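Deliverable D4.2, example record:
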Amino acid sequence: KEFGTNHLKTYTCSSCSAQLFCDEVTVATSCPYCGNPNVIAGKFSGGQMPDVVIPFKMEKKEAIEALSKFYKGKKLLPKVFSAQNHIEEVKGVYVPFWFYSGNADVNLKAAATRAAVHRTSKEIITTTSHYVVERKGNVSFENVPVDASKKMDNDMMDSLEPFDYSDLKKFTPSYLPGFLAETYDENPQECVGRLEGRVSKTAAWEMERDIVGYDSVSVIKRDVKVNLQGRPRYAFLPVWLLSTRYKDRNYLFAMNGQTGKMVGKLPVDKGRFCGWFFGVAFGVAAVLTPIIYFAIMKAGL
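Output generated by the structure prediction step:
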């Protein structure tokens, strides 16, 4: 069944200003980014649709189970995070990304050493040879993702990778029913800096791997020039989000909606931490005290 843009609604969070859209039957009761319950519904007025999308594979039930496993066994976690009512606030969101393609020119210089050992009847002689190693080359890349959302933590989005690009589909609104989607608020030019940082690091690492046969290698110069090819593709990637508050601070957890990988920063219950810390300190003291005592007695102090 065809699902057109005339069936879309928009939602604006009055707290973090997230711009979301979804199908007309999906209800946004709270913002998936900050947990604010005050979201304002409006009529979809058009806008740029993504070029491609990776559909959700993981269901909400699987997201809830993944979160339960994520904090299982973490004794310093506040009890509020194990409450079922917080777990149920998981929302499926298509997060906006830019896909960049191109190549990188790499100029690498390194100091390397190679040691040779000679043994005689009287001595062992080690001869160390020093080299200056240079590597130049070109590394191509395709569909490197950079999230286009200011609300999303960049490290969190990077940690959700990798996505399986064999599931990439041409976008149609028919993928939206049951899910929210965020419009991008960072254009391709604003995201180029992050793209260049990722590509430069990976391209230099690939070139460094080619320096073999030495006992030690120390890179002294890395010059990387990133060349983009064509217009970045606008993509939606599937992410399950859980936003919950603890002591007036918002915590956001994310799960890759395709692979099930879960990421997020967990809060620490200060009361439990103090109890754990002093318990460990007492245990260590109980072990070390007799050892120190006998050491003192043996020394005659």
